[in-house]
Amino acid sequence: MVDPSAAAPLPAPDSDAFAAVVAGASATPRGVSFGRLVPTVAWLASCQGQAPARPITAARAVIVAGEHGLAHALESTAEYGPLSAFAVAATAEQANELNMGAGPAATAARAAGVSVRVVADAAAPPSGDITREDALSEEAAQEAFERGLAIADEEVDGGCDLLIPGDIGVGNSTVAAAIVGTILSKEPVAIVGPGSGADDEMWKTKVSALRDAMFRVRNFADDPWNVARLAGSADFLTLVGLCVRAAQRRTPLLIDGAFVTAALLIADRLYPGVHRWALAASMGPEHSQRFALADMDLEPLLDLQLRTGQATGALLALPLLRTGIELLAD
Predict the structure, then answer these.
(1) Rounded Cα gap, residues 318 and 11, in angstroms
(2) Which of 197, 320, 210, 315 minimizes the C-alpha distance to 256?
(3) Residues 50-61: tens digit of each pLDDT
(4) Residue 287 in contact with residue 192, Cβ under 8 Å?
(5) pTM for the complete prediction?
(6) What whole-number distance in Å separates Cα of residue 171 and Cα of residue 122?
(7) Of 29, 143, 290, 303, which one is least surrounded by beta carbons within 10 A?
(8) Is residue 281 a contact partner of residue 313, using CB atoms and an 8 Å limit?
């Protein structure tokens, strides 16, 4: 099991750099006029440990694909019905598409000048059906978490100055809702969201599945590791590890989407303070994302209501962040 107490203390962003950017902007009417761009750029400066903030030159998107036993089970059972507007085969199809330079994230990444890494080995085998069984064994959970640590180390060692985690996986929004709902003590009907575009029957399926999954892990609300292990998946814990290591390596994170936000929430519960290294890029329609962001006191830069996954919202927000850096440095 992950033991945060055995790790070195988590570094904190540089509060002096943050204050310097804010003070510099507050000194002129023009600077004041930049509104929320000021604390956004100040956050980046604090992560970099310098003011003014330096330009982002080596951002890297890491998109983790994952298969969920929940989605497989519900696609083939009459007890609930389909979970998503997408068939489960769409996970592998979208990962392959992205590897070939196609799909929403590939398009947004090209426009933002960001390179993309697809991690597809977390996609198989599927995690357990969380309505009936544990998602992962302790060994598999630990392996997935350590994979995320290693990926972040590889990217930072390679010169990455901003990490953009993303996800691909049919059933991701339901898994995120189960985890956030359990951690924050929300009812299934309050935490459930539309996913990829659920109709009324799919929404009922999601509520039923959430009810059963959350009931199974109800006694672990104060144990974020086991909530993630029992109700998550390998790709989820890979993203948790990536977020943790990014904070440990003083590397800022640009996040969006319910699944990645839920991973950040677990990372922050395991290692308090991880969220200070993250900027929320865009709000989506998932209630779990809204609740998780509020719990971490993160306010999204944009409200695009995207449900495409693949870090698309973060990739679309990056040019705005880059422009903000230039505006405040001018």
Answers:
(1) 24
(2) 315
(3) 999 999 999 999
(4) yes
(5) 0.93
(6) 15
(7) 29
(8) yes
